[in-house]
Amino acid sequence: MASFVEAEIATQPACWRQAAALATRVSAALPARGERVAIVGCGTSLFVGQAMAALREAAGHGETDAFPASEVPRGRRYDAVLALSRSGTTSEVLACLDAIGGGATTVALTADGAAPLAARVDHAVVLDFADEQSVVQTRFATTALALVRAAVGEALEPVAADGEHAVEGPLPEPCGEVAFLATGWRVGLAREAALKLREAAGLRSEAHPALEYRHGPISAAGPETLVWALGPVSDDLASDVTATGARLERTDTDPMAELVRAQRFAVRGALAAGRDPDRPPHLERSVVLG
User: Fold this and answer.
1) Res. 101: pLDDT tops 80
2) How far is CA 153 from CA 141, 176, 214, 238, 250, in A?
3) Quick one: pLDDT band at residue 102, thresholds 50, 70, 90?
4) Mean local confidence (pLDDT), 38-57
5) Tens of pLDDT along 132-147?
């Protein structure tokens, strides 16, 4: 019997198309062009928030920071705060809304419009069609990112088409450890890919801005290492990686589709290790502190 997460991974391209169609209807609730924005989240939501922040700035929509909800600097002034939480119950996300300077418009991206977060903010965008039963986040996070990509003017149909290929396409051979590399907004996705492998499969994984890999981490690479690029990397870096004996995975598909492949890779690793990919050890669907 397939796990919940396998089914949820497979539905991502359809969810991205739905998010793209929704983007225009909810545009008034999202931070406006030119506003100074803070994005906050935990775990997967943090890494997706980092991707959103870099995308928003690169698209000319305004200065955007992304913080772990537990580490938001006090006293900074923002026009808007975008809080990410699938469950809408994450303790640190709720608490951080009080830590950021007053006067900011607060917006939530969540899967549960009845949860505390939606009631706590000025505007809630509810992506309930992307909610999940698995503890491991996949489609909610990428659907939230798809919404933001569409909102800043990106065309999502090519991304969804790449995602459909990623759902069915081949995966890299198993390995002992994986290093994900990326540039720009993709770095957040590389960090999320590394998290998926660690939490679901218990596999050693790391993520780096691509050119930082040569500043220390490459010294640990060897024949059991898979170096997986999400997006473009330079030919000279690729040569340096292959010289270590590591395998290099490098494609020209959209990095969100590559994240789908990484999610599938994590599930395969979990099943091979006898782990439940829906319920990794020591994790719950939401972290609610007493």
Assistant:
1) no
2) 19, 39, 34, 31, 26
3) confident
4) 98
5) 999 999 999 999 999 9
As given in the structure block, the two tokens for residue 154 are: 């990106």
Q: Is 259 helix (H, G, I), strand (E, B) or coil?
A: helix
- Beta-strand (E) ranges in 75-136? 80-85, 105-110, 123-126
Q: What's the rounded Cα separation, in Å, for the pair 267 and 280? A: 11
Averaged pLDDT, 102-128: 96
Q: Collect all residues with Cβ–Cβ distance below 8 Å to 92 and sequence separation of at least 6.
A: 42, 68, 69, 70, 287, 289
**Amino acid found at 119:** A
- Phi-psi category of residue 199: left, alpha or beta, with phi > 0 → left and psi -120 to 50 → alpha: alpha
DSSP state of 174: P
Give the max Cα distance, the chain: 54
State how far the Cα of 10 lies from the Cα of 260, in Å rounded to an integer.
8
Does the structure show a pLDDT above 90 at 176? yes
Which residues make Cβ contacts (< 8 Å) with residue 254, sequence separation at least 6? Answer: 158, 159, 162, 163
Phi, psi of 169 (to 5 degrees): -75, 170
> 238-272 burial, b for 16+ CB within 10 Å, e for fewer?
bebbeebebbbbebebbbbbbbbbbbbbbbbbbee
Q: What does the pLDDT average to over 193-211?
A: 98
Q: How many Cβ atoms sit within 10 Å of the Cβ of residue 135?
A: 18
Predicted TM-score (pTM) of the model is: 0.96
